[in-house]
């Protein structure tokens, strides 16, 4: 159902989501992103992402591809590695908390405080020198859960192959990012992004309907 005052292309996206027509959803989302309207696409997708794996998958792809999370983190951090780590942690927290997104809200405004909290966690750990084995951030926690294999076989099986291969090579086989990139014939930056998205989708599967409150 379209929202009063919503642009026609946004209304079409909502109608396609209502119908479960994800081929059309993908096409319309790509058009909106190409038109510089990624934020508007995210607003609509976020309303459907809790409990709808395909909508969640497209949401993560658009959000990560837009660079919004990295830009938010980059406002507060200078170190590139820190930005990468915090962005991955934030992406997982967003997926775990998507059930608390309020319909009609601006998605990126909802995302920003989550990124802030992940940055604050990172800075506190740096300041206090907290060992990794004492407190694990979301990215580290998901990597450990995946490596344990005990609860994630079904979640891994549901991942698109594009994400499943690098996640398995990194988190189960223990390859470095560079080794994963070489094995798959992809760039290191590409596999980092695909692993981040894959871990986020595994987190969504482990959350059942991706519910929960923002942390």
Automatic annotation (TrEMBL):
InterPro entries named in the record:
RNA_pol_sigma-70-like (IPR039425), RNA_pol_sigma-70_dom (IPR014284), RNA_pol_sigma70_r2 (IPR007627), RNA_pol_sigma70_r4_t2 (IPR013249), RNA_pol_sigma_r2 (IPR013325), RNA_pol_sigma_r3/r4-like (IPR013324), WH-like_DNA-bd_sf (IPR036388)
Domain (RNA polymerase sigma-70 region): residue spans on this chain: 69-127
> What Pfam family is a match for this entry?
Sigma70_r4_2
**What are the record keywords, sorted?**
DNA-binding, Sigma factor, Transcription, Transcription regulation
Q: Name one GO biological process term.
A: DNA-templated transcription initiation
**Which residue intervals define the domain RNA polymerase sigma factor 70 region 4 type in the entry?**
152-200
Note the superkingdom of the native organism: Bacteria
Q: Gene3D superfamilies under this entry?
A: 1.10.1740.10, Winged helix-like DNA-binding domain superfamily/Winged helix DNA-binding domain
| Molecular function terms from GO | DNA binding; sigma factor activity
Q: Which family does it belong to?
A: Belongs to the sigma-70 factor family. ECF subfamily.
> PANTHER family given for it?
RNA POLYMERASE ECF-TYPE SIGMA FACTO, RNA POLYMERASE SIGMA FACTOR HI_1459-RELATED
NCBIfam families, alphabetized? sigma70-ECF
The identity of this protein, by name, is RNA polymerase sigma factor
